[in-house]
Amino acid sequence: MTTDIKIGLFSINTDHLAGPENIAKVAVAAEEAGFESVWTAEHVVLPDPQVAPSPLPPEANLLDPTVALAYISAVTKTIKLGTGIIILPQRNPLVLAKELASLDVLSAGRLTFGVGVGYLGPEFDALGIPMKDRGPRSVEYIEAMRSIWNDPEPSYSGKFVSFSDVKANPRPHQKMGPPVVMGGHSKPAWRRSVTHSQGWYGFALNAEQTKQNIEGLVEAASRHSRPEELGSLEITVTPRMRPGVEMIEAFSELGVDRLVLLSGAKNVDESLAFIEHIHGSLLS
After folding, report:
1. Phi and psi dihedrals of 279, rounded to 5?
2. Nearest to 100 by CA among 25, 177, 34, 160
3. What share of the chain in percent tops pLDDT 90?
4. Is residue 81 a contact partner of residue 37, using CB atoms and an 8 Å limit?
């Protein structure tokens, strides 16, 4: 079948793909199969020993998202590049703005900036960043990054970031900079999606959970004004469903724009087989 829903591939930078040959092979295969995008995961550090709610053991391999996507941009031509997500309050916003602008320029405008506010206390502690203010900090960082990307005379004065009398070039390839996709399944995440983001990203959701989140986004939109320049809110989901026609139908009915699929692959051959399966069943 052919679907209007855009299909992405999640976790392009982890485990068996955290090396040059495999990541290139799988990214090129995804592009050739008709996938719209590839998406990275992120944790700067992981608790050792693993403690809830950490999703991964401390030995897990995760390439840095911007470095991994820069490498992929060099071996592909058209596939879009998504961070799914970058834990924004853990980053210096101006350094990150430079990295993302550089990646957007080198990829000719293929970057999507997926962000989240984080949830692992030990990770924040190791980085020396307070976890309690991660939501407001993330909002300021988005605003500050858009200023350095777009304003003729960039400046920002906030609680967590302040600067003036500086510029950073090159500016991103895309107008306004890479589109921001806000991750999260909470009222604050829905609000930030409406007020500061071009899109929303729900991770590991079934159709009913997605419906509940979309209803939350609609409610947030009724309470908070959305800047006109952000356009319509794009809905991206990593589904907790077996890929197939039933999955497409379920999420299409909800108005989902993009599905970013988890392959569950343990090695590069399984990744390539998954891509071929999706190509044959959904993309051709």
Report:
1. -60, -45
2. 177
3. 98
4. yes
Burial 102-124 (b: 16+ CB within 10 A, else e): bbbbbbeebbbbbbbbbebeebb
Helix, strand, coil distribution of the chain in percent, nearest 5: 45, 15, 40
Helices marked H in 76-206 — which ranges?
A: 93-106, 121-127, 134-150, 187-196
All residues at 6 or more sequence positions from 237 whose CB lies less than 8 Å from its CB, including other chains: 201, 202, 203, 205, 210, 251, 256, 258, 259, 260
Q: Give how far the C-alpha of residue 44 lies from the chain's centroid of Cα atoms, to the nearest Å.
A: 15
For residue 35, being part of any structural domain is answered with yes
Task: Give the confidence band of 41 by pLDDT, cuts at 50, 70, 90.
Answer: very high
The pLDDT confidence band at residue 250, using thresholds 50, 70 and 90, is very high
Q: Yes or no: say if 13 and 23 are a contact pair by the CB < 8 Å rule.
A: yes
CATH code of the domain in which 206 resides: 3.20.20.30
171 domain-assigned = no
Cα–Cα dist 68/39, whole Å = 10
Phi, psi angle pair for 181, to nearest 5°: -115, 120
Strand partners, 147: none
The whole-number pLDDT of residue 104 equals: 98
In a domain, 222, yes or no: yes
Nearest to 138 by CA among 103, 167, 181: 181
H or E element at residue 234: strand 234-239
Which residues constitute the domain of residue 199? 6-88+107-117+179-283
Report if pTM > 0.85: yes
Domain count, the chain: 1
- What is the tally of helices (H) and strands (E) in the chain? 9, 11
Asked if the structure places residue 145 within a domain, the reply is no
Dist. CA 86–CA 149, nearest whole Å: 18
